[in-house]
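Weekly modeling sync, notes
Attendees: S.R. (lead), two postdocs, one rotation student

Agenda item 3: backlog of single-chain predictions. S.R. asked that every request posted to the team notebook include the full sequence so nobody has to chase files. The rotation student volunteered to paste the first one in as an example of the format we agreed on. Action items at the bottom.

Example entry:
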Amino acid sequence: MTSIAHSRKTTHIGGERVAAATTAARADVGAIALAVLRITTGFVFLWAFLDKTFGFGYATRETGAWINGGSPTKGFLSRVAVGPFESAFHTWAGTWWADWLFMIGLLAIGVAVIAGIGLRVAAVSGTLMMLLMWAAEWPPAQFTSAGEPTMSTNPIVDYHVIYAVALIALAFAGAGATWGLGRWWAGLPMVRDHAWLR
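Predicted structure, as returned to the notebook:
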């Protein structure tokens, strides 16, 4: 009787160890998945900054590069042809402050998210940027102000919303610790004293 009870106890403890190991393995895989999401999302912002700055020929030609006197906002904002903020975006297109805010935002969000630092600030600023870009494209509209089809495929959730949700999820998950500088960043005295900087 004692040997049976002892055997059951050992099996139970062994089962707990297996369950704990399985849970730990899943947590590691989840952390790696979030790290991959973090790095790729950050690269979306960083690449946009680099292409607009140097004109690699993807979204921006060399002649339109920021370093060659081109405006990172003029082309996109001047072509806004839909939505309640159309005239406001036209007014902002190509202004020095819009160019600088946009480019600093792209660079800072990209670097912070890739490095895994300041994810909360990056999530707030990135979400604001995506909200403005969503408003510029105005997906709810089926037709432009000139009556042309907008080619909108979803009236609410487009890629801007997905990027914003990804940034928010990464910040809430504390995704900077895996393959990033999140732990080091969180240990800095200023960041420890001001949790919103994490």
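Discussion: group reviewed the output briefly. The helical segments are 2-54, 74-78, 86-92, 96-115, 119-137, 159-173, 182-187, 189-193.
Action items: rotation student to repeat for the remaining queue; S.R. to check formatting next week.
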